[in-house]
Amino acid sequence: MKRLKLFAMLVLFPILLAGVGVWEHQRATEEIADLAEFETTVQSALPELRAIADRSKMTIVNLGGEKVAVMIAIDRLEKAQNQLGTTQAIAAVRPGLASAVMGFGVLTALIGLGALLATQAAGKTARKSRDHLLRVFSRGRRVLPFVLVSHISLTALAVAAAVIYEALALWHLGKMSSGDFKGMAFAGLLGLACLWTVWQMLRQLKAMRSMFEPTPMDVLGRVVSEAEAPGLWTHVRALAAKLGALPPDHIVVGMVDGFYVTAADVLVEPANVTLRGRTLHVPLVHLALLDRAESGAVIGHELGHFAGADTDYTMRFLPIYDGVARSLTAVHVSILEADWLQRTLMKPAFLFGLFFMESFDHAVNHWSREREIAADAAGAKAAGQAAAGSALVRVASSAEAVHASMSTHLTDPKSAPDDMLLAVVNDVAAQPLSMPSELLEESLPHPSDSHPPTLTRINALALPLDSVVQTGIRPVDPAVVLATLDGYFADAPALRRGLSADLRARLVADDAEIVEVLQSHAKAVDGECRLHEGARVRGVVLALLGLCFLGIAVVLATGHLWLNMKANEKQLMLFMLGGAVVGAIGLWLLIRGWLYVKYAKEAALVMTPDTLWFSNSTAPLPISHLADVSLTVHGNFYLIRFELDPDAPLPVFKKRKTGMPGARLFKKKRMIQLVMAKACIEGKSLSAQVLLETLAAYFNAGQARQALQEWKQPVSLPDAAQPQ
Questions:
Q1: Where are the transmembrane segments (predicted)?
Q2: At residue 242, does pLDDT exceed 80?
Q3: What mean pLDDT do residues 599-603 have?
Q4: 3 state SS of 216
Q5: Model-level pTM?
Q6: Are 141 and 324 in contact (CB under 8 A)?
Q7: DSSP reduced 3-state for 714
Q8: Which of 119, 140, 376, 436 gives the lowest tally of CB atoms within 10 Å of its CB?
Q9: 330-339: b (≥16 Cβ within 10 Å) or e
Q10: Residue 294 parent element (H or E)
Q11: Are 306 and 237 in contact (CB under 8 A)?
Q12: How far is residue 135 CA from its own chain's centroid?
């Protein structure tokens, strides 16, 4: 569906514009020929008419099929002759504008088609090798912003030329009406708006280029120097030397995330330090749970990405690819928050950006799987196959327990333990680890690579599964864990406390930001809002119209009597039937109008910050039971839909009063529907936009108040702090 939409925007619409240009060019050519013919006719007709006028000014002549006095004919032709020069000059401009529409349309379609085909071809080429992937992706991300800006600008120019053409087409011989001038002014303003779009598009070039530029990777942790982590640095350098890999320039230790290396820029929080070069991220919890051989296998796996043919891929391609993906996510958020003009200008580029990334997904996933298997082999080379296999099992089997423990301790970040690692290790040690078969089929999370399932990776190492699993799920001994960390860091307890404090501070700040947003929504409405139809005027009109129909019905049914018409039986039946039909319509209009008047001021929906009360409710409906609210305008009616939360009980409604707007429950769809002819608050009619904003304000307020009440419930870790 996305590809069809892109094809329509980038190719079909420009072709349609080019077709409009062909049509306009044909019209312009015909009009120029008609004006030339008219000029010849006027030049030959005027002397003849003047000769006739010299003989008799009262002579009647035929002018374009109309018989007029000869002097009037001369006057009209002279005025037309005076206007002819201006009209011909304007007509002469129109073929050029039509040609511009055709040219811009065809060129835009070719650019759009070329961009689509080139991107698709690049995606196929990228599957040949990692070098091809790097080359075509790098070239594409540099060229595409200019292609998109050119496409949108040329489209706007084509539309502007077409609109200006139509504005000039309104100019004609004879007296110009005020409507003609208004039409020309409107079309001219529309053309200027298109030209303004071109200018705005050129200004957006920087924003579009930023879509395809990498952004730094946000990491929560601490950079450790060789003085702070002598054992870890020695361990890592020895592994790099054994593998012939490039050692990292930086090591970042965090409480969350997994083991990974990256050559992208890394923004380390909360220190707000940007690292450039090769960075190794080490999760403190998993580093502690692994023995030295297992950590060597895992770190060796990561360093394998900086060895051999994988070096260029890791150093040059992945930072760009991951950065572009993060940039597109950020652009999507900014588009949602932007004004309508910027959204309109940026959406085609954003959609094409997604298409561009999706075209490379298959190649990226393919090479990621290949390189992960190769990196596992590097890890096995560094620390042995048995350690590589048991490390996979230990990380996978302990991940859920680690996450559950951290989530529990961070329910209230302010009261979280000062030493989070010790608390988590004690929790994990208190329960035996397990490795069920479904966990073997899952992949370990990674911020940039697509890992194969754990079972596939163990099989690739040619290891007996049972033995590997038993080693990986061995009991956790807190004393051994702490001793392991002491061997890596100069002051492990201080580092543990520092990382715990950073995590607490991050979550406290996140919670405060969320609470602030929720409170702003909760305070956005105050008191109840009574929504009523207020269709009194519509009711009066319908009632009067109904009376008119009833009068017509009486005339139809009895008119033959007082008009002394002699009607046969068949005609009489037709009159009676017509009267009955018209009378039924009139009666319905009269009753409908009366009901509108009767219930004009009665509330169809009462909204409070916590509940909704419909006219046929048996009990208030908590807003927290709703999943969404929407508004659709159908003709002269408002259709309001409330979608129920999957876990919410179905509300009960009583029968609606005839003619009174009430709720209707669709049980299968779990949806409540309210139809209103109009929407008013205290007698003031609401537009669709204001009504939607009012509904959204109360919905958001109810959801926010419920969330604030449940705030003490367990919370999820932030995106940057999900244990891997």
A1: 101-122, 143-164, 184-202, 540-560, 572-591
A2: yes
A3: 73
A4: coil
A5: 0.61
A6: yes
A7: coil
A8: 436
A9: ebeeebeebe
A10: helix 292-303
A11: no
A12: 30
Q: How far is CA 8 from CA 2, 139, 272, 336, 614, in A?
A: 10, 25, 44, 22, 44
Which residues, 6+ apart, have CB-to-CB distance to 424 below 8 Å?
285, 402, 405, 406, 409
Identity (one letter) of the amino acid at 49? L
Can you tell me whether residue 506 is helix, strand or coil? helix
- Encoded tokens for 5: 């939409």
DSSP-derived letter for residue 617 is B
The contacts of residue 235 (CB under 8 Å, 6+ apart) are 292, 295, 296, 299, 488
Task: Give the whole-angstrom CA distance, residue 415 versus residue 709.
Answer: 19
Q: Residue 639, SS3? A: strand
DSSP structural state of residue 653: B
Structure tokens at 25: 């060019």
Distance of CA 120 to the CA centre of its chain: 23
C-beta atoms surrounding 166 within 10 Å: 20
Which pLDDT value is given to residue 373? 65
The beta strand positions in 200-304, using DSSP E, are 217-220, 222-224, 250-254, 260-262, 266-269, 273-275, 279-283
Is the CATH number 1.10.260 carried by domain 601-709? no
Q: How far apart are CA 401 and CA 441, in angstroms?
A: 18
CA of 714: how far to CAs of 62, 400, 707, 711, 717, in Å? 94, 16, 12, 8, 10
Contacts for 585 with CB less than 8 Å, ≥ 6 apart: 546, 549
- Inform me whether the pLDDT recorded for 713 exceeds 60: no
Token pair of 166 as six digits: 């139509």
Q: Give buried/exposed letters for 441-459 (b at 16+ CB in 10 A, else e).
A: eebbebbbbebbebbbbbe
Lowest mean pLDDT among 35-44, 69-78, 170-179, 639-648: 170-179
Q: What pLDDT, in 10s, does the model give residues 497-514?
A: 999 999 999 988 888 888
Domain limits, the chain: 2-203, 217-310+371-519, 535-598, 601-709
How many angstroms separate the Cα of 624 from the Cα of each of 388, 518, 651? 49, 14, 13
Burial group, residue 670, by CB count within 10 angstroms (0-12, 13-18, 19+): middle
Give the C-alpha separation, 643 to 639, whole Å.
Answer: 13
Q: Give pLDDT tens digits for 300-344.
A: 888 887 765 555 565 566 656 665 665 566 556 655 655 555 566
pLDDT band of 723, cuts 50, 70, 90: very low
Strands 529-532 and 603-607, how do they pair? Answer: antiparallel
Q: Would you state the structure tokens that stand for residue 39, as one six-digit string?
A: 């000029």
User: Which of 82-91, 493-502, 509-518, 571-580 is predicted most confidently?
Assistant: 493-502
Q: Pairing relation of β-strands 222-224 and 250-254?
A: antiparallel
